[in-house]
Write a structure and sequence with these properties.
With 194 residues, the protein is an alpha/beta fold. 28% of the residues lie in helices and 19% in strands. Strand 4 (36-41) and strand 5 (44-50) form a beta hairpin.
Length: 194
């Protein structure tokens, strides 16, 4: 399996490597969308999974559970807290996205969708230079290992329909409403992650 690490914003660039179960650890934090499992491989965020998420790897692959106050999780939690409070619209974290070259290309494009906006699967395929690959783009989108931070929830059907989302269509709708400023008070003003 291929993997790559990169930061968004003012990060540190790219590096390559392969993660193994022995260099993984995880933490679980609360959010307005239910518990989030954060996974790090080699000290870099490699997973953010919701409960009941489609394509969620087995729990035993996440490594030892550690406190969310430990790095790299403390920085992730700080940025997620600011995001859920409406104080942050993008993330600046080193990420380790493990997948095929095509999947990583799709996930990289996802990080370019502006906060509060959506792209269709066709638009995403066109941005990749593969306008006839909407279905393959949709499959790669569904296997995004770092939900929310790599915003796969911002991809919708060509007609504007709320097509599938690994975390469930209800969560997708709530995330999009939150980002567009149409959310109810529960999503717009969370009590925090802990």
């Amino acid at each position: 399996m291929d993997s790559t690490s990169h930061s968004h914003g003012t990060g540190t660039g790219h590096s390559h490597g392969t993660g193994t179960g022995t260099d993984r650890q995880h933490a679980v934090v609360d959010s307005p969308y239910g518990p989030l499992t954060l996974v790090a491989t080699g000290g870099t965020l490699s997973g953010l999974y919701m409960t009941g998420q489609r394509h969620r790897p087995p729990e035993e692959s996440f490594g030892a559970r550690v406190a969310a106050t430990e790095e790299p999780f403390a920085a992730v939690v700080a940025q997620l807290t600011a995001y859920f409070a409406g104080e942050r619209t993008d993330f600046d974290l080193p990420l380790r996205l493990e997948g095929t070259d095509f999947q990583r290309g799709v996930w990289d494009q996802l990080t370019r969708i502006p906060y509060g906006e959506t792209w269709s699967y066709g638009e995403l395929a066109a941005k990749l230079g593969k306008p006839s690959a909407s279905r393959a783009v949709g499959l790669a989108n569904g296997k995004n290992p770092i939900s929310i931070i790599v915003p796969c929830h911002r991809v919708i059907g060509a007609s504007g329909s709320m097509t599938g989302y690994g975390g469930g269509v209800e969560r997708k709708v709530r995330l999009l409403e939150f980002e567009s400023g149409r959310a109810g008070t529960t999503a717009a003003a969370p009590e925090g992650l802990f």
